[in-house]
């Protein structure tokens, strides 16, 4: 069971597949805050997979889920490709989100990037500008938690990833769950972990940064 607002690496590994299934079934693009009553923005999940790593035989295996989504406006020449990963941070004992974003003028399909038509976004200012443009959002809206640039803690490549530092995650999630009495003692461990991950996604996952990319489901999982 979940204690003190934290899950273990083992609990994360045991239940990330169920959460990923919920994510794929219920991830939605919500454009109610757009400048126009009807937005022409389109949203597609074009890749999703789980990667298991055995970094050290003395510790439990590490797992991350990677999902690639495409956000496009039919009237715009470019779309946004967003890769985001969900993994577990051993030091802070919470899930953590990394993501990278590309401008895509080639309209890549099938999960493959046409390198000739894709440009990585490497600043928060450029990220916000493109996000507003593709979704036709009001430019006075704010994104969610503060994001920084960093290397990925499990993917060792030259990519620049956006990252929410998890130093406040444990305290915030504990306060949320205690205030709303989200977790019940009669819940199974699976139900508790799935509720926990749904709250985390809405607060510190992709839904916390981009409120338009929402996980639309009931916490009665």
Automatic annotation (TrEMBL):
Keywords, sorted A to Z: Autophagy, Protein transport, Transport, Ubl conjugation pathway
Protein transport found in the keyword field: yes
Pfam families: Autophagy_act_C (PF03987)
Gene Ontology BP, a term: autophagy
Domain of life: Eukaryota
InterPro entries (alphabetical): Atg3/Atg10 (IPR007135)
GO terms assigned for molecular function: ubiquitin-like protein transferase activity
Keyword Transport: yes
Protein name, as recorded: Ubiquitin-like-conjugating enzyme ATG10
Source species: Debaryomyces fabryi
């Amino acid at each position: 069971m979940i204690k003190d607002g934290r899950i273990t690496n083992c609990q994360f590994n045991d239940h990330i597949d169920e959460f990923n299934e919920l994510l794929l079934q219920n991830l939605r693009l919500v454009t109610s805050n757009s400048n126009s009553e009807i937005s022409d923005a389109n949203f597609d999940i074009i890749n999703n997979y789980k990667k298991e790593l055995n970094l050290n035989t003395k510790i439990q295996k590490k797992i991350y889920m990677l999902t690639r989504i495409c956000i496009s406006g039919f009237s715009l020449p470019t779309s946004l490709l967003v890769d985001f990963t969900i993994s577990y941070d051993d030091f802070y004992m919470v899930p953590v989100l990394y993501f990278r974003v590309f401008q895509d003028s080639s309209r890549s399909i099938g999960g493959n990037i046409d390198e000739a038509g894709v440009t990585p976004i490497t600043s928060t200012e450029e990220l916000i500008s493109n996000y507003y443009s593709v979704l036709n959002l009001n430019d006075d809206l704010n994104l969610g938690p503060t994001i920084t640039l960093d290397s990925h803690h499990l993917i060792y490549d030259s990519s620049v990833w956006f990252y929410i530092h998890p130093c406040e995650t444990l305290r915030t999630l504990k306060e949320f769950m205690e205030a709303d009495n989200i977790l019940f003692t009669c819940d199974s461990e699976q139900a508790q972990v799935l509720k926990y991950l749904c709250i985390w996604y809405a607060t510190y996952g992709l839904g916390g940064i981009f409120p338009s990319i929402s996980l639309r489901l009931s916490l009665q999982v």
